[in-house]
Write a structure and sequence with these properties.
Length: about 180
């Protein structure tokens, strides 16, 4: 609860006994007119019993100049931080892409190292020589299957059956349906 001040604004007024800074349920605000005795005048400087006339305090404007400057400052700061923030986010995405590329390259390197380790094994080299170059070990009899050239020539001369055109397929299905209904 705020303290009430005198009309001159010099300090708090006297409080009623029992108010003690707490709001009371029985307390009501008097909004009626203030009685000012016109016949009785007090000499200057004396504080008689006459009540001072109430004046309305000016209402604060909805948007003060300080608030306008603060809003403008916030807008300017927001605009000033958007470009660096955008650059930061772009750089973060580039870093993530580069890290993914590095991880893929490391996986490729690991696979190449495994392949290299295989080629260093003499048994793997023998197996590859047998498969790729048809090498045989001493004492083994090589078997080489030679394809029949006549069968290959006949397969090359036989043309593949041309697929039916779509309208031929459609017409044959219509004829098949017609044949089923006439039975």
């Amino acid at each position: 609860m705020t303290e009430r001040r005198t009309p001159s604004g010099q300090g708090p007024t006297r409080r009623r006994p029992g108010a003690a800074g707490r709001p009371s349920a029985s307390r009501t605000r008097n909004t009626g007119p203030i009685r000012v005795p016109s016949a009785r005048r007090t000499p200057a400087g004396s504080s008689g019993g006459a009540a001072a006339q109430r004046t309305d305090a000016p209402r604060p404007r909805a948007l003060t100049s300080r608030a306008t400057i603060l809003i403008a400052l916030v807008v300017v700061l927001a605009l000033a931080y958007t470009y660096p923030l955008r650059v930061y986010l772009e750089q973060e995405s580039q870093i993530a892409e580069m890290e993914a590329a590095v991880a893929a390259q490391r996986a490729d390197i690991a696979a190449a190292e495994k392949q290299l380790a295989k080629w260093k094994d003499p048994e793997y080299l023998r197996i590859q020589a047998l498969e790729r170059f048809s090498y045989v070990r001493p004492g083994e009899t090589p078997l080489l299957v030679v394809p029949n050239e006549e069968d290959e020539a006949a397969a090359a001369q036989t043309p593949a059956a041309a697929p039916d055109r779509w309208y031929d397929t459609l017409w044959s299905s219509v004829q098949a349906a017609n044949a089923e209904t006439s039975k």
